Amino acid sequence: MQETDYDVIVVGAGFAGIACARTLAQHGARVCVVDRKRDLGERIHTTGILVAEALLHPCLAGLPAAQIRAVPHVRLYAPNLRSVRLAAPDYRFYTTDTPALMRWLGDGLVERGITLRLGTPFRDAERTGDRWRLPGIGRARWLVGADGATSRVAMRLGLGRVDQWLYGVEHEFDGVALREPDALHCFISKHYAPGYIGWVAQTPTGVQAGLARRHTPGSPVVPDIDGFLRHTAVMTGLSAPGRPDSIRAGLIPCGGPVHAWQRDGVVLVGDAAGMVSPVTAGGIHAGLRHGSAVGEALACRLQCPDAGDIPVVTRAVPGFRTKRALRWAFDHAQFDGPFDLALRTPFMRLVAERLYFHRRGHVVPAPDVSPSMD
Questions:
Q1: Which parts of 46-171 fold into alpha helices (H)?
Q2: 3-state SS of 149-199?
Q3: Helix (H) or strand (E) holding 127
Q4: 10 Å Cβ neighbour count for 291?
Q5: Which of 56, 206, 233, 240 has the most Cβ atoms closer than 10 angstroms to its Cβ?
Q6: Would you call 214 helix, strand, or coil by DSSP?
């Protein structure tokens, strides 16, 4: 296949890679996005839960209303299944049909003149002068690794690599309804989710249920999602959901940003750079922000090619200091008994509201979405 010259080649068509590519294209850069998947809706590893801020990102402007569902509050469960309802004024979480969303985002790349090459895995890259050459793909001044938590770009080119993980599994059940559909149901349980939580939520097409736990490399232990669903059925109403219509599973970074996420014309973004909250494991909004910020910085570098190395995008590289401390505490001091006793206390409510809503009473304007075409 003929190789083409580009300004930037982005490896990985996830949220961060797409945001980076779109930002670059807005500045007139010639961009190619490659992804090993032949269909951006297949083998999804990302959960379908969005914070309200994510829907305010330009990449999601015009998202069809039929692809999202507002979830106005959180119901947090202690290990004994007692619960407390959490909410913030005018704040919403959103669930989505993730495969449909990724296909929609991919179509948006093509509409903006960005080259999208699916079924094209990254195998290696070689430096030739001031450009990177990807055999069978093309040459570019900058290479962006947006290929996920186990980034092959980082591994091959000697950049920082994620080394702390959660392992998550999510099942989707089409056409099923929850007993309380307007809540994001979150379950604390050291037995089922050591180091993280379980969750159940209503989606535009049914129900998604997930479970994640701290992961040790080489460990064969995976989340017991079937046992978790049986344990929580009395609260969710999912007593016999049947076989899942789709399953997502994979590693989730939880150690904060990697130390070396850029060098010699290579930049990591999103999960590949560890841009995921160590506590909540939320990576979609962080990935969109980081991808766009890196795209802006690269566009600047392309306009001023003699100005040296790409500057660090400090505002888009959070330190997660507080959340990394909470991650340590969750890993070393998670006990079911104290959570059972403390869940309904004002202190625990305050901590939970700050984790879920960033600050108590924080208001986020409702996003604009285009009307459903159904």
A1: 98-111, 152-157
A2: CCCHHHHHHCCCCCCCEEEEEEEEEECCCCCCCCEEEEECCCCCCCCCCEE
A3: strand 126-128
A4: 31
A5: 206
A6: strand
Domain count along the chain:
1
Contact 272, 12 (CB under 8 A): yes
Could you identify the residue written with the tokens 């570019």? Answer: 140
Range 330-337 average pLDDT? 73
- Tens digit of each residue's pLDDT (9 = 90 or more) over 171-204: 999 999 999 999 999 999 999 999 888 999 999 9
pLDDT in tens, 197-226: 899 999 999 999 999 988 888 778 889 999
User: Residue 233 pLDDT more than 50?
Assistant: yes
Indicate the Cα dihedral angle 369, 370, 373, 374, nearest 10°: 30
Give the domain CATH number at 59. 3.50.50.60
Contacts of 218 (CB under 8 A, 6+ apart): none
List for the chain the helix, strand, coil content (%; round to 5): 30, 25, 45
350-360 pLDDT tens trace: 878 777 776 54
The residue among 48 and 8 whose pLDDT is bigger is: 8
- Residue 313 sits in which domain range? 4-357
Residues in the chain: 374
